[in-house]
Write a structure and sequence with these properties.
Peptidase_M1_pepN_C, 876 residues, 5-stranded mixed β-sheet, Zincin-like fold, Neutral Protease, domain 2, Peptidase_M1, metal-binding, aminopeptidase, binds zinc ion, binds arginine
Length: 876
């Protein structure tokens, strides 16, 4: 365990490394508890470093066995070695080879960082600082070396031996039960991209020929018996490889690309060079066990990790403050890929929903931080929605401002200039500035200022002058460490919708507004559009062109009009959501009578519109989540009142539209066997939305329909959707269906995770007892991150009424789990504690109980840096 209060690391303190490593030879002798690692580092003094600087290598919990310089063993007096650091105060020369032998215990590694075991297999996770748990090394992303890795192991225990790059040699070790393999990665890389895998794994093999004719062997390795579930991942991989060639001109650069799925993994997946390691949740799928959401998650994560090969690996980060350089950009790239593979508007709506749920809430609370933070105490806590999802939005805004061609020119220049380097956000911005001649100084504030800007817009029509005027102001709310902010560059895409529903021409003075992009750069600005013959309705922030909160003052009638006519599908969706949000806020605040007629009419029209994609309809008709309503209310939040208001509105819609919904449900019966394509998934999503609305009052008919679907479904999407409906209601069918589901899928941990999630999210006063009971269930394990996230994580982050019980029992429970988990796996523990990120917006009673729980965590001695950092900042 590290210090509870390590000194913060600051971006401003960045210094180049004193020593570089040109070449690394690793030799692993795998063993369950005593794996022997021999590292030979070709060290060279950095000409840009400090005169006479010592060699200081990072370690974390290491046991040193032996040290040698250029082959000669080193006497104890000439170095200093502790678990966390190795120092050579007087290096013998300006370049030499340091040989280090360490012993590590993969079985005892419950943090799942460094070399560990998952279901008996050996695997590694090195980003961000796991390599130092394997050997002493300058474990920072700006030290790039060429790696050769030799692995030996018992043939029985680990018939498969993998590492980065290309396989150069393998075979038995004569006279022993062991065998070996040697892998060589020709591309210089930082240590966080190192990976090793050893174990009993089934392989799915395929090939890919790149645009320039390189033949690549593709392999997906999964636990034995699961090979038939890797087909969709392989298909997604090949589509990703092709797409990066056409969309960005990026080809794959090794002869082998391997993916390994493991069942114990802290995050989603990892882009190690040529050897991606995945949480098996993002690889394994079959119609019987995976939902449409799982399929699209697999497609997105496979693409994301593959795209890192260029944005992350070929060009890496200078330091961890630049994390968004690879993550924001790569999320943008995977979102674009999925948009091209599926429906662009539907993908955009789903991404914005996710952005608002995770990032806007983070940005409005005590854990808010810039896309590029200025300091950190634990870098693992900065793999956040802000760095990833807001980081992607910043890249998207850049594209909106520069246009398709300018953006591509900037990307091309970035790849050309920085290939093989560890780069910064400044380098990235400079490539776009130089390629297009545009000054991006003010735009770069998006990387520096935290908080979600509020853009307030007032429209006025002058019939005589035939002008329409938009008065726009922007302000960024204060966030931790940033009380005042400067105005940002905000690309606000707008349209003016005329009385017949068509867009009016957008002309400012004599210039046509290209692509509808208004560039906000000042605290207050006005735009006067000319040649406007009738009063329009403004459609603002089309496609969610900027990650801001727009205050538009649109009337309910205007929203109904946009929902029916806006040429921008995102804003049609948003108009309906805005209508609903207004009603929900009112309902939650005052228990005010809900008057949803306008919303009902607009929803009915959407449902009846045969020109619209079912997936779009499902998104448009799904009410804003409880979290979004809470964030809109901003203060004195009572989650029970929100829940009640949402349920009342849902019932009103369900009752009023019952006929249309039943008709939709009947019309959308699948015509054939399950296929995971977007069109089929869209029909299922609308049909299952209808199922949910039709059961909202727990009518006998609604429950019977869901129960029948649960029993008859031939795929997991429909079965789970029906179960999700049943569990929301206190009916006998609930426990019956839960028991049947468990019996049917108990052998399948990833499916049982869904069973945990649904139960953890029931909005009922006995849910906490249920969750506590399930923690003792044989299928649950505190040692497996997917189980913890599915049961306790889903309760804390997905059940606002029960996590925030007024008696404080929900908060206390989550704090207890965090404290129990922290000594075993600090990353998963701190992630769970982050569920408190919106605690300050709660009403006083619940706020006090959240604060007490956070204080109890913060005051516990011996906390990990991860949990201590979150607790301190959440309270700060
Ligand atoms: N770079 C990985 C990705 O593709 C995330 C790995 C983060 N791992 C961690 N332990 N923080 O997003
Ligand atoms: Zn990533």
């Amino acid at each position: 365990m590290r210090d509870a209060e390590p000194q913060p690391i600051r971006l401003a303190d960045y210094r180049p490394p004193e020593w570089l490593v040109d070449k690394v030879d690793l030799d692993f002798a795998l063993h369950p508890t005593q794996a022997r690692v021999t590292a030979r580092l070709a060290l060279r003094r950095n000409p840009k470093g400090t005169q006479g600087a010592p060699v200081i290598l990072d370690g974390d919990g290491l046991t040193l066995v032996r040290l040698a310089i250029d082959g000669a063993p080193l006497a104890g007096s000439s170095f200093e070695a502790g678990p966390d650091r190795l120092t050579l105060a007087h290096p013998p020369a300006d370049s030499f080879t340091l040989e280090i032998e360490t012993l590590v215990d993969p079985t005892a590694n419950t943090q799942l960082m460094g070399l560990y075991r998952s279901s008996g297999n050996y695997c590694t996770q090195c980003e961000p600082e796991g390599f130092r748990r394997i050997t002493y090394f300058p474990d920072r992303p700006d030290v790039l070396a060429v790696y050769t890795t030799r692995i030996e192991a018992e043939r029985e225990e680990a018939p498969i031996l993998l590492s980065n790059g290309n396989l150069v040699e393998s075979g038995p070790l004569p006279g022993t039960t062991r065998h070996y393999a040697v892998w060589q990665d020709p591309w210089p890389k930082p240590s966080y991209l190192f990976a090793l895998v050893g174990g009993k794994l089934a392989k799915v093999a395929d090939r890919f020929v790149t645009a320039s004719g390189r033949e690549v062997e593709l392999g997906i390795y999964v636990e034995e018996g699961k090979a038939e579930r890797a087909g969709y991942a392989m298909d997604a991989l090949k589509r990703s490889m092709r797409w990066d060639e056409t969309a960005f001109g990026r080809e794959y650069d090794l002869d082998v690309f391997n993916i390994v799925a493991v069942s114990d993994f802290n995050m989603g997946a990892m882009e190690n060079k040529g050897l991606n390691v995945f949480n098996d949740k993002y690889v394994l799928a079959s119609p019987q066990v995976a939902t449409d959401a799982d399929y699209s998650g697999i497609e997105g994560v496979i693409a994301h990790e593959y795209f890192h090969n260029w944005t992350g690996n070929r060009i890496t980060c200078r330091d961890w403050f630049q994390l968004c350089l690879k993550e924001g950009l790569t999320v943008f790239r995977d979102q674009e890929f999925s948009s091209d593979q599926r429906s662009r508007p539907v993908k955009r709506i789903a991404d914005v929903r996710a952005l608002k749920a995770a990032q806007f809430s983070e940005d409005s609370g005590p854990l808010a931080h810039p896309v590029r933070p200025q300091s950190y105490r634990e870098i693992n806590n900065f793999y956040t929605a802000t760095v990833y999802e807001k980081g992607a939005e910043v890249v998207r805004m850049l594209k909106t401002l520069l246009g398709e061609a300018g953006f591509r020119a900037g990307m091309d220049l970035y790849f050309q200039r920085h290939d093989g380097q560890a780069a910064t956000i400044e380098d990235f911005a400079a490539a776009f500035a130089d390629a297009t001649g545009r000054d991006l100084t003010q735009f770069s504030l998006w990387y520096e200022q935290s908080g979600t800007p509020v853009v307030t817009v007032k429209g006025s029509y002058d019939a005589e002058a035939r002008t329409y005027r938009l008065d726009v102001s922007q302000a960024v709310p204060p966030t931790p460490g940033q009380p005042t902010k400067a105005p940002m560059v905000i690309p606000l895409v707008v349209g003016l919708v005329g009385p017949n529903g068509d867009d009016l021409p957008l002309t400012l003075g004599n210039t046509v507004v290209e692509r509808g992009v208004l560039e906000l750069t000042k605290a207050e600005q006005s735009f006067v559009f000319t040649g406007i013959d009738a009063r329009p309705v403004p459609s603002l922030n089309r496609g969610f062109s900027a990650p801001v909160n727009v205050v538009s003052g649109l009337t309910a009638d205007e929203r109904v009009f946009l929902a029916a006519h806006d040429a921008d599908p995102f804003n049609r969706f948003d108009a309906l959501q805005g209508l609903a949000l207004g009603l929900l806020k009112e309902g939650a605040r005052a228990g005010a009578p809900v008057a949803p007629e306008a919303l009902i009419g607009a929803a009915r029209n959407i449902l009846a519109n045969t020109a619209l994609d079912p997936a779009f309809k499902a998104q448009a008709l799904a009410l804003p989540g409880e979290g979004e309503i809470a964030r809109e209310l901003a203060a004195d939040v009572d989650p029970d009142a929100i829940y009640a208001a949402r349920k009342a509105l849902k019932s009103a819609l369900g009752n009023a539209l019952a006929g249309d919904l039943a008709q939709t449900y009947g019309a959308l019966v699948a015509a054939g066997p399950f296929t995971p394509d977007a069109a089929s998934a869209g029909r299922r999503s609308l049909r299952n939305l209808a199922l949910d609305y039709l059961a909202v009052t727990a009518s006998a008919e609604g429950i019977a329909r869901a129960a029948a679907q649960f029993e008859q479904a031939d795929n997991m999407t429909d079965r789970l959707a029906a179960l999700a409906v049943l569990v929301q209601h206190d009916v006998p069918e609930r426990e019956r269906a839960l028991a049947a589901f468990y019996e049917r899928f108990k052998a399948d941990a990833l499916v049982i995770d869904k069973w945990f999630i649904l139960q953890a999210q029931i909005a009922a006063s006995d849910t906490l007892e249920r969750v506590k009971g399930l923690m003792a269930h044989p299928a649950f394990s505190l040692g497996n991150p997917n189980r913890v996230r599915s049961l306790v994580g889903a309760f804390a982050a997905g059940n606002p009424t029960q996590f925030n019980r007024p008696d404080g029992a929900g908060h206390a429970f989550v704090a207890d789990v965090v404290l129990t988990l922290d000594p075993k796996n600090p990353q998963v523990a701190s992630r769970l504690l982050s569920s408190f990120k919106t605690w300050r917006q709660l009403e006083p009673v619940r706020r006090a109980s959240a604060e007490a729980a956070l204080r109890r965590v913060a005051d516990t001695p011996g906390l990990s840096a991860d949990v201590s950092d979150i607790a301190t900042r959440a309270l700060g």
